[in-house]
Request: fold
Amino acid sequence: MKQKETPISAFNYIKRYLKRCITGPISLLMGLSVTIRYFFSPHKIVTEQYPENKKTLKMHPRYRGRLELIEDENGENLCTACGICEKACPNASINILCTKNMAGKKILGRYLYHLGSCTQCGLCVEACPFGAIRMNQEFELSSESVDSFELILNKKEGRS
Ligand code: SF4
Ligand code: SF4
Reply:
């Protein structure tokens, strides 16, 4: 059964109206004070002015961009073509193509990385026992060409 609504008295109505007349402007002034504070102290603004700051913008260290191979001081990548990262990837975004060196030892031929299917989970990086890969800081990864999502990460054949 529907309950009967208690009629609001004229006194309570005026009281509530006056309360709103006071709290409304106070709330507005509190909001404006934040705007004014940042207007006079622009160095405190944390919002990134992208794309104007594109050249100086640094992502957070824990940000995961796209996968890349790590090179040593001689420019050789550290990958031994063991294939552990390939197995660790949950959606087959990595293909390790091996080859053999003159001594018949297995080395990295091509490190194929499918950026389009990569979810930047970082499991491959965690799984690599040689610390040979990392997620870089690139953040403009979109492209109009599907082909640009198919990458060969090693510029030359891997170490023996
Ligand atoms: S990146 Fe690491 S885990 Fe992957 S094949 Fe190379 S050495 Fe093995
Ligand atoms: S970050 Fe995740 S999805 Fe991307 S290649 Fe590595 S394991 Fe696969």
Notes: Residues 116 and 145 are 11 Å apart (CA to CA). The two ends are 84 Å apart (CA to CA). The mean pLDDT is 90.
